Design the sequence.
């Protein structure tokens, strides 16, 4: 299997189906964007990939041994959470390598004292800086200022060609700048 991920006619939801059928694939080196109206089920589709949502029909094929990291749209923030930025990155295997300069001042800060945008960027890097070959990003530009968005664009544009990203975003300009392909989902 060359692709990292293939969705073949996936119908996903919770108690009942919400989205689908959707078919798409993510090849190494690709940043695939999913776009569609609010509430159509884009986050649900990402959750189906990690089995956090139910799959009613279709088939999900993951390359054997594939590691997946998932940045959620509404991350859980434990409060108080005295863990430091660098400890989160160590836990997720994202501590080494070429850290985006924006993160350097956050390494010794407590997670529960970071702003929404600081936490967002740190969590994105916790996914992108680790060992996962496939990274799922759900509205990654949420809370990011233009500098944070530019840093994220740079990270995605220089992604290791062996890895792939499947992302959901309403930011048309961001999607156009980083995605190699866009999948539209409609009702
Ligand atoms: N755990 C859940 N159990 C049941 N229904 C859920 C659950 N999570 C989300 N939903 C419902 O699933 C539908 C699709 O939600 P989802 O977040 O996947 O949409 P979306 O396309 O990502 O929306 P948006 O663009 O607004 O982020 C919504 O009606 C939502 O209320």
Sequence:
């Amino acid at each position: 299997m060359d692709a990292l991920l293939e969705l073949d006619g996936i119908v996903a939801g919770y108690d009942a189906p919400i989205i689908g059928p959707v078919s798409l694939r993510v090849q190494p080196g690709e940043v695939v964007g999913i776009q569609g109206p609010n509430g159509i089920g884009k986050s649900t589709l990402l959750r189906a990939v990690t089995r956090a949502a139910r799959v009613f029909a279709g088939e999900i094929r993951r390359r054997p041994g594939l590691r997946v990291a998932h940045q959620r749209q509404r991350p859980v923030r434990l409060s108080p959470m005295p863990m430091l930025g660098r400890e989160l990155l160590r836990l997720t295997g994202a501590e080494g390598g070429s850290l985006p300069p924006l993160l350097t001042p956050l390494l010794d800060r407590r997670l529960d004292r970071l702003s929404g945008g600081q936490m967002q960027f740190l969590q994105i890097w916790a996914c992108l800086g680790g060992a996962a070959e496939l990274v799922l990003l759900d509205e990654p530009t949420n809370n990011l200022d233009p500098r944070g968005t530019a840093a994220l664009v740079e990270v995605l544009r220089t992604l290791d060609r062996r890895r792939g990203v499947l992302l959901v975003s309403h930011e048309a300009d961001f999607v156009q700048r980083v995605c190699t392909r866009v999948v539209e989902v409609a009702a």
Remarks:
- The radius of gyration is 16 Å.
- The chain has a mean pLDDT of 93.
- The longest strand covers residues 17-26.
- The chain is about 25% helix and 25% strand.
